[in-house]
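Q: Convert this sequence to structure tokens.
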Amino acid sequence: MTTVSTQYWHAIDSGKHRGKIQCDLCPRFCQLSEGQRGLCYVRGREDDQVKLFSYGRSSGFCIDPIEKKPLNHFYPGSSVLSFGTAGCNLACKFCQNWDMSKSREMDTLASAASPEQIARAAKNFDCNSVAYTYNDPVIFLEYARDTAIACKEQNINSVAVTAGYITEPARKEFFQYMDAVNVDLKAFTDEFYLKLCGAHLNNVLDTLNYIYHETQCWLEITTLLIPEKNDSNKEINELSEWIMKNLGPDVPLHFSAFHPDWKMKDIPATPAETLTRARDIAIKNGLNYVYTGNVHDTLGSSTYCPSCNKKLIERDWYELGEWHLEKGSCQYCGTAIAGHFKNESGTFGARRIPLFNYFNKH
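A:
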């Protein structure tokens, strides 16, 4: 495993925390003594600086459909080489990937791969993109950045799946290398973020505004709806109104179903009706592309023209059916559809191809 020095930190030279080093990557601002790790666990103080301890190591690699990220308007039907590391800078009690994001065992990072190896593998497997996912790529910024640079040399896109909990200076560096981003907007109250994630809402909203207004990244948003926690009509209305006002009507919004996991196994799974209700509210608030996820809902997962309302991209889970786009526009009325599209639908489908030990052999 490679350990690398990082940039976003400073030494505290006055006050009661004098002698500690503060990590400035995310708004958690962990203050560290020598040998101490931050909450994310993969960044920590060593030799009087903050280092990343997971560079070049992954919890696993897999080829997925791009819709699984989820990204519905970024080359639909294409394949994406996905990987993550360990740890996370949030403390979500409902984490769906807790075995990786909450891991404190470096044995979780069983796969070793350099940025150049990852880029070559994506090219060899004819992947359109590489996704930094499973746990939050913000905490392995340097590894994701270097991989994105290597991917660009191979004409491979980079996709970040993140909660967006990152400071302004680090934000500027991280997203300049990304081609598409799905931000997990956990809820629309600070109370939810504080009690269930150990974080704050405004930092995430700042990230969303930054990505949309200051970068070239294609942006989509996902909200996991949890019964009686963030699924009220009022909250969904406020969330979709904020997106409409600040980001406009063309940023796709995905409402995803919660399944009992990690420390919230006592909460029931989200009914499909809740997702449909949320989708209806967001559409009424003017959003053009609103989707349901983690449930079988062909209507809610398909793409429709915002002008003539004809079905343009049919989705059945991760399988694509009808395709009525021509040069990124509706075949029926000619309205341009927001996103990145090829002339034809991708054909990767719902396959999932784990790359067990691939990088140990190549």
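The first strand starts at residue 2 and ends at 5.
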